[in-house]
Amino acid sequence: MTTLASDPNTRRSTNGNASYDTERRSKRTGLGGVPAAQHAPPPQEQIIQMMVSFWTSRALWAAARLRLADYVEAGATTPAELAAATGTHEPSLRRLLRALVAAGIFSTDPHGRLAQTPLSATLRSGAAGSLRATVDSVLGGEHYDAWGGLLHSLRTGQTAFDQIFAEGVWSYYSRHDEPGSRFDAAMTEATATFVPQVLEACDYSSIERLVDVAGGEGELLASVLARYPSMAGVLFDLPPVAQTAYRRMEARGLSPRCTVVGGDMFDSVPAGADAYQLKWILHDWDDDRCVRILRNIHGAMAPGGKVLAIESVVPAGDDPSFAKLGDLNMLVMTGGRERTEAEFRALYDRAGFELTRVVPTTGPLSIIEGVRHGE
Ligand code: SAH
Q1: What is the reported pLDDT for 23?
Q2: Which one of 8, 36, 183, 270 has the fewest CB atoms closer than 10 angstroms to its CB?
Q3: What is the pLDDT of residues 298-332, one digit of tens each?
Q4: C-alpha of residue 115 to centroid of ligand 1, in Å
């Protein structure tokens, strides 16, 4: 769902760690890399690198959860100060810090004081480009537990989350404030990362009124409205999320042009707009549920309108892609799936839309545009 996998080229190693070059090489051949057959490390080395990337992920999560980057920013730069600030066991925290520094998350000076690096800076709460809440939500909490149920999903086809928590993820987030708010903040951060790419790829200039269906806290819609000053917007999401979205739209001065509506998209969506966008929504649901959402949009749309789904499209072939791993996240978390272009076309068709084009962005997302059949 996010650019959590750090680009090896942006990593900083301050201590000449001997495994650094090995890791760079094997990253290129790992799940997120490009095959480079002739220079590939031995298979065992590649498997071990894939295996220990789980430890890196969990160390990264601990850094985010403990807000280490915030404390370093505020001047707590020794392990003792950080242990006191975070209520952790200093000798154990030192071990975490050593592993983080080796991965380029923080650096140390000769006296062992921690300093921010470009990677650790992304873990500062609320900073521009922050991914702290995203790392906290996606590598921890319910996500972590749901991935623990991967085999259950593989054996039964059921959503691991539902088995573990005895309810679906959206109902769970609506009823549990803390993880719910953490997830919403994670979506806002991750979406902010991709907004410039979407705005660059998608020309919204012909749209007068845009509904963002299940638009979360409104990050994408707010950015679109800011870019197109004569456009009106409607942010639609479940009532608890819509409440936060309303406050955020107000704080950004967009209330006069943006209506915020709480509701259930399986019942209906706000009517009369000439465009409906859904970002990271269709991948949350199985085909039948997607068709229901799309049919509601079909019925609500003004004549000549269009639907814009913003998703990762699974590419043909065996090359690595964000969507192929994200698809497993959907399997365990939501019961949805990532889809190929042909699968999106079939979904649109069933709901009465013709898929008119797929516009790639420079990142992992594409805009999948559709119009009603016969329009
Ligand atoms: N579009 C946003 C949020 C994606 S997360 C973004 O890309 O950042 C999925 C969103 O679907 C959440 O905000 C969740 O609250 C919303 N959602 C889930 N079930 C819904 C329903 N039945 N009706 C409306 N919104 C729903």
Answers
A1: 37
A2: 36
A3: 999 999 999 999 999 999 999 999 999 999 999 99
A4: 37
The residue annotated as part of the active site, out of 111, 143, 176, 283, is 283
Cα-to-centroid distance, 62 and ligand 1 (Å): 27
pTM of the shown model: 0.88
Mean pLDDT of 33-60: 87
pLDDT at 38: 65
Q: What is the distance in A from the centroid of ligand 1 to the CA of 215? A: 6
Percentage of the chain lying above the pLDDT 70 cut: 90
Half-sphere exposure of 295 (CA within 13 A, CB side): 10
Distance set, CA 109 to CA 101, 147, 158, 251 (Å): 11, 37, 50, 40
> Which residue is associated with the tokens 């894939």?
50
Clarify whether 283 is annotated catalytic.
yes
Q: Is 69 exposed, middle or buried (0-12, 13-18, 19+ CB in 10 A)?
A: buried
The residue contributing the CA closest to ligand 1 atom 1 is: 215
Q: How far is the C-alpha of 153 from the C-alpha of 164, rounded, in Å?
A: 11
- Ligand 1 lined by 222 (C-beta under 6 Å): no
Regarding the beta carbon of 214 and ligand 1, being less than 6 Å apart is answered: yes
Distance CA(138)–CA(143), nearest Å, equals: 6
Residue 55 Cβ < 6 Å to ligand 1: no
Nearest residue by C-alpha to atom 12 in ligand 1: 216
Question: Can you give the pLDDT at residue 375?
Answer: 87
Q: What is the mean pLDDT of residues 117-131?
A: 96
